[in-house]
Structure formats: C-alpha cells, structure tokens
Write a structure and sequence with these properties.
The structure is a single chain. This protein is mainly beta and 367 residues long. The strands form two sheets. It has a 14-stranded antiparallel beta barrel with strand order 1-2-3-6-7-8-9-10-11-12-13-14-15-16. 43% of the residues are buried.
Amino acid sequence: MPSLFRRRARCHFPFGRWCLLALITALWDRESSANPGGLGSRHLGMANTGRASAVGVDAALVNPAALTVTPMFELETQYQVRIIDRTHGLGVFVTDSLNNPSLAIGLGYLFTRGRPLVRLPETDGGTRELELSRFGHQAALPFSVVAVPGWLALGGKLKYQYLSLRYLDDEGIARDAHDKLEAFGLDVSLMFVGGRWLRFVVLADNLSGHHPAPYDALRELSLDGVERDVDGEIDYHQLRRISEYPLALTHALAVYPLGSTRFSLNVDATYDLASYADQGRARPIVGGSGEIQLGPIPVRVGSFWDGGGRGRADDRVVVSGGVAYQRDAKPGGWGADMGLAFSQQVSGEHLATVIGVNLGLRLHPDR
C-alpha cells in the first residue's frame, strides 16, 4: 500500500500539456451523452459506496479529499446508460497528485442526455405518453490539500452545472417542464486516515448549486400547451421525484482487514435533503460493498437501500457488481484502468438497470 501523503520526487509536467488536456476536456464530443451523476464505473459497481477507498479519477468524482492519498496522474473517459428512461452519459476527467506532495488537482467535464416518459390522463378516460428531454452539462475542478500529513486531508470540487427538463407541446414548441439549473456548485469533503487499516470521510455535496426535484406532492410538472384532463393525476412512470443536484450529507467508512488496499469493505450513508423537502424528510441511502484485487483484476460487489420518502411505497433496493483491469504506472512509464459495471434495482416500481464502462490511462512522467 503506498504511504499516505509520502514525499515524492517532483515531476516536471510542462504547462503546455495541461493546456492540451484542458482543451480535450472542454471540446469533448458534445453530441454524445453523459452519466447523470458522473459517478464512474467503480462507484456504480460498488452500489454507490466506496467513497472512502476511492483514488485518482474515482476520488475526483465522489470524494475529492482522497486525491492526495495515492500519487497518480490519470486521464479517463467514462460512459453510462440507464436503460429504463434512455439516459446516457459521457465524461472525461484528468487528475494529478504527483507534482506536489501536499496538493492534488483535477479537471473534468460531463454531459447528460435522457428521454424519460410520463403518462397524461385524457378527457376520454384514456392516457397518452409524453416524452421529456433531460439535458445537462457539468464542468468540474476537484482539489485536495493535506491538512495533517499522514492523517487528515481536505478536499473540494468547484462546478458549473446546467440542467434542463423540456418537452414539445401540442404545437411542437419546446417548453420547460421544470426550472432550469444554471449555477456554480461546491462540494467539500474531509478525510481521516487510520494507517493501513481504515479511512473515514465526511462529505457535503452541492452546498451551492442545489436544485429541487422535478415535482413533489405539492407541485406538478409544468406542462403548458399540452391537452389533458387537468382533473386527473399524471403518471410519472419513468421520472422519479429525485433531485439531480440535491443538498446532501454523506459519511463513509472503508476498512482494510488485511492492512492492504487489495481488499476493502465499505459502508456509505447519504442523506438527500432536497428530494423530499416537502415532507420535512431527509431521503436516506445506505449501502455496503466489497472490493478485492486479484492480481491486476479488481472485483466489486455491493448493494444499497434507498429509503425514499415517508412510508415504504417508494423504497427500493439495488444490487451491483463490476470488474476492471488496472496497472499502475512506473516512473517514466504508463498504466491503465479499464472497467465494466452494472447495477440492478430488485425491489420497488419500474426496475432500473444501469451499465457503465471506463477507460483510463495512468502516466508517471518522472525521469
């Protein structure tokens, strides 16, 4: 296991290469589609857990404080698809924790496109389907600093977030079904390291730039210009009342029973303060996972429970798994991180399947 926050030889990575990587990130194919949450295939395969044991790009996505734990320079692309509502995602991230023993930084871009369906009551007693268009961008700048060498790290992620949910009315005019999000967001995290045996992290997501759910018990979608029976209820079908950018608090624990990062057990608990605010309730999401590395092959399994709102009507349980190939980069060389993961909802309505892949390149430009 690499020594946490160890002193390392300064690598000379020309500024021009950073500019080139930033340009690649900014100009990535915008006609493609991206991960709704930008969580990566490792996090997906570990059932939305594993924040405390994340490194490299995975840390940039879900726990920026962990960027300084393992010296690494990594460039990674990722793709995910949620089949039920035809939501796709594409992202690219670059992270560097080699240049400075006390500071790590990254840069990333994510793009989202989805087509969920809702069902509207008609005046003749029937229903009609209306296709919505979910569209979003996110540009992110994650960073981490060492607060107490060997023990404590602080992290943050500055983000620009854009998200829209639209539809075509009966005249073919595009309208907003929900308020657009155009804001600068901020995530923060604090990470404690207990030697070779455990890591504990506390995170706050979207301290700024949070956004309400598309609808709740007191507020329907805005569907002006669409003929329907206004006395009937909308069947939201493929559109859950979940905020895409909620104000959320998380605590996560990773334990290494063998004193090595090759085997970890993880427990994460998240409290979404936005999606069910009309009920005065924080939505709990609690899960556990394990990751074991068999040579260059990490194998991941996990499950989580999503408590939804009051009562059990919208509770759900999800199981997940994944496998990857990883090779660390030696000084002056390169390595790789290629992964495949899935998650499958096994209880609740409208069982959802998500599939994700990633392709990463690890570099160590020291000479």
